[in-house]
Automatic annotation (TrEMBL):
It holds the Pfam family ABC_tran. Residues 2-238 form the ABC transporter domain. The keyword Nucleotide-binding applies. This is Phospholipid/cholesterol/gamma-HCH transport system ATP-binding protein. The lineage of its organism: Bacteria, Pseudomonadati, Bacteroidota, Flavobacteriia, Flavobacteriales.
Length: 255
């Protein structure tokens, strides 16, 4: 579980995060949404420990980040998996090499232990015959699976995903969403996803945090987002005619 208490972050005069408090439960898929520039990436980077908030606290399973020693921060970092926008695979390494990379960097496991773990996670993301291929030889959806395998190879407690669906066709995007959601439940991970994909919001948003101008404007579940009368949320989420109709149908069905 991650608990966030009143965090602020500025860059010079630019006050980007203006006192955000929330919590993210383990085993749940949490989504952060909001317009471009609302502070989603800065917030995610604070959660990852890449930016230190100017004010406020972030607590990881009872451990306050601000109170951790450098060594404990490094250990905490190893409990975090990250799926970057665009996958960010190493082009010169095979699929297997990419997934093994964190194990090579951060563990003393034997070659066969590492190989077993890599085989296991690649199988878990449904990539069976791609071990020896290079990123350029596989599709964008497969690259995303490799990125997810690499993110979970160290058995993380926390999984962060930045726009995991960007550049994917709608069908592949749904498969990737479902995979992240399944892995989250299966391994009891606290997962936090930055997204613009409204389909993800409706399908896998067990908790949705809506940021606006650096404030938490709204939070709730994908069921609640259909019913909310928060104008900022409805203007943002139901900006397309299609989603307006979906919401209308959902509300009519329940009346
Ligand atoms: N390192 C930085 N230095 C200065 N300003 C920054 C830095 N990182 C982000 N900002 C500013 O913080 C604001 C919020 O940016 P952020 O990237 O968090 O938005 P976002 O909601 O993730 O947008 P998008 O959906 O387009 O990715 C922007 O005005 C941005 O210019």
């Amino acid at each position: 579980m991650i608990e966030v208490d009143n965090i602020h972050k500025s860059f010079g005069e630019h006050h980007v995060l203006k006192g955000i408090s929330t919590s993210f439960e383990k085993g749940k898929t949490n989504l952060i949404i909001g317009q471009s520039g609302s502070g989603k990436t800065v917030f995610l980077k604070c959660l990852l420990g890449l930016f230190e908030p100017d004010e406020g606290n972030i607590c990881y399973n009872g451990r306050f980040y601000s109170e951790l020693s450098t060594k404990d921060r490094r250990n905490l970092r190893q409990e975090m998996g990250m799926v970057f926008q665009g996958s960010a695979l190493f082009d010169s390494m095979t699929v297997e090499g990419n997934v093994m990379f964190p194990l090579d960097m951060f563990t003393n496991q034997s070659r066969s232990e590492k190989q077993d773990r890599v085989d296991f996670v690649l199988k878990r993301v449904n990539l069976i015959d791609a071990h020896k291929k290079y990123p350029s030889e596989i599709s964008g959806g497969m690259q995303k699976r490799v990125a997810i395998a690499r993110a979970i190879v160290m058995n993380p407690k926390y999984l962060f995903c930045d726009e995991p669906n960007s550049g994917l066709d709608p069908k592949t995007a749904i498969l990737i969403d479902n995979l992240i959601h399944e892995i989250t439940t299966e391994y009891d991970i606290t997962t936090i996803i930055n997204t613009h994909d409204m389909n993800s919001v409706m399908e896998i948003g067990e908790k949705i945090l809506f940021l606006k101008n650096g404030y938490k404007e709204w939070e709730g579940t994908n069921k609640e987002i259909f019913k909310t009368d928060n104008q900022a949320v409805t203007d943002f989420v139901y900006s397309s005619e299609l989603f307006k109709k979906v919401r209308q149908m959902y509300l009519e069905e329940r009346n």
